[in-house]
User: Fold this.
Amino acid sequence: MLKSLRLRLSLRAVLITLLLSTGLLRPAFAYDVQIGLKAFEDQDYQTAMANFTEGAMLGHALAQFNLALMFHQGIGTPQDFEQAMQLYGLSAQQGITQAQFNLGLMYDRGDGVAQDYREAYYWYLQAAEAGSPDGQYAVGTMHFYGQGRRENFEEALRWYQEAARQGHRDSQYNLGVMYLNGLGAEANLTVALTWFSMAADSGSADAQYNAAVMYATGRGAERDLVKARDYFTMAAESGMRDAQTQLGMLYASGNESELPRNYEQALFWFNRSAHRGDSTAQFFLGRIYSEGLGTEQNLPMAHMWYEISYRFGYEQAVRAMNRLRGEMNPDQLSQSQLMGLRWMTQYAIRYPSSLRNTREAPSDVTVEASPPVRPVI
Assistant:
């Protein structure tokens, strides 16, 4: 595939040379790519395409790249992977690193061509050696998974470091993972936390979660529940369900010396996670309503959440639910079951495929005391 691609590019270059020599094309110096870039920015795609097409035929590398981008993404024109690949190739041969990276991406994903990790690696490497952090990240990832090359954690680490030094967030996160697990280098929790924190501060929810867990457990640094709370909050606010649950745990089990207990905040975060199907959050939400922690006691609501938690796989919920039944009258039980049915119906509408993993309402079992609220990290 590489040979055939280069052959097509060579023939196209010959054609452009002939057209220039016969005067059928204007000299390249008369062309202004800024006209196309301004039109593209203004979403005047017809003008942008006309300008980029003119520049591409003149051999203008940036015009070739931008025209390829329009074909690749179907902007202002029907998506055409073959045209995109040829134009990326012309631009890449003139040293446009983003074109080199995008060619690698097309081979990596199999966009309009058979997926070919070796070709992807070749083009990613061109971009990486030219200093592209995206290319460096891609080369590192292919070494990590053994795609287009044999698995090589040391090389993966080296390329991730190159990209991470340029602020590449995902490379920083992956370095954290590698140092945490001793992949490509000796395990070093302090270094892992450093990279997680850098990626977290750049907005990576996974890095925020991992940094929070490490601060909460004192791994890689002294235990710091305030920093753990801050990083869990970042991840939770971005929508990470596990972070929402852990943040609820942190607030429910705080202490006066480090992080004061706050059941109102625990209720808020458990509620957000529970409504997205997290069985642990559902269980502790039941506990909060059962004991009136940070809110008024509500036995029907508590029973409902215990039952939902069990349906979603939390084994201990059934014992807490059956204990609660002994404190409820028939009307409260009926109310709880009706609320549970309504909740499950609404959840099924929002997430129809997720209910395959739920189970039927539990039968009575031996009553046991429910466990205390505490972090589970």
